[in-house]
Amino acid sequence: MRILNASGCLDALVAPDVARQLDAFVTKTVTPLPREGSAPPRIAETAHGMLNAIGLANPGRERFLAEHLPRLGELGIPLWVSVGGFCAADYAETCSSLAGIEAIELNLSCPNVDEAADSAAEIVAACRRATELRLYAKLSAAHPDVAEVARAVAAAGADGLSLINTLRGFALDKQLRPVLARGSGGLSGPALKPIALHAVRACSEATDLPIVGMGGIETGRDALEFAACGAYEIALGTVLFADPGAPARAKSPRLKVADALVRSAGCESDQDAGPRAGPLARPADGRPRPSERRARQAREAQEGPQGGHGPDREDPR
User: Fold this and answer.
1) Quick one: pLDDT band at residue 118, thresholds 50, 70, 90?
2) Full domain range(s) for residue 207
3) Which residue of 19, 38, 159, 297 could cross-link 134, Cys pair, CB 3.0 to 4.6 Å?
4) Could you give the C-alpha distances from 136 to 1, 245, 299, in angstroms and in order?
5) Is 47 within the bounds of a domain?
6) Residues with catalytic annotation?
7) DSSP states of 123-160
8) Contact of 204 with 211, CB cutoff 8 Å
């Protein structure tokens, strides 16, 4: 099980040594045009996490490609580029301009900007036509049925899922004024973990796509729980603001147990892990349960690729 960062939670050019502790680095979301983002204050701590209303501040596609991406390539670790926009064409144009990276994460669920008018599936379909790079759809648990969205983006050509994005929240200071200039912001941190685990479990049951799980992960035990619910990889977010050593700590012995879960759906070797999360009811369309899928994927990993999988579309495990 690999460890990534959640997009926007680490500046690899400012803290390259922290970035190199990761197995892959995910950039801040890039939009076609530069964005200054929301007015400050736009980050605030809460009792059980953090609120942010950054507003997708970024240098824009042209400057990112010319200046930032070449410098990130010098880190010597795999790169994922987070792509955002306000219509399907915005996303697709950026995807078509990217090359030499491991994957693209489509930010389909930022709570701090207006959502794209096109549906998540329409955006994924447009990006699929624009690139052969692996596409991961980053979804929000704010949708009443995130598994339905997962099935839609899978049908549109997504290669994986990132779960979950922050959820919209609000907090007041001692004078009962909003702590963020924008008012509401995206809630992240430990408070998000139970919601993230549910989303990972539901989407793992609903699709065959590999999942990057995120939301309140701080320790190896957290990673183990995400693996038990169906995550293939994990991403650290809020914890990186306070603890640059978090990636090393998350790579505890329990991460080896998480690897075993990912590869064989078994957890018997770690008594401290407790019982594995039980499966949800099989969907009406007859899709296999995670244990059935992972057993098959473990056999395929031992036997080698079974045709039809080019180097840009292989299983990212």
Assistant:
1) confident
2) 3-303
3) 159
4) 17, 26, 24
5) yes
6) 110
7) HHHHHHHH--SEEEEEE-TTSTTHHHHHHHHHHHT--E
8) yes
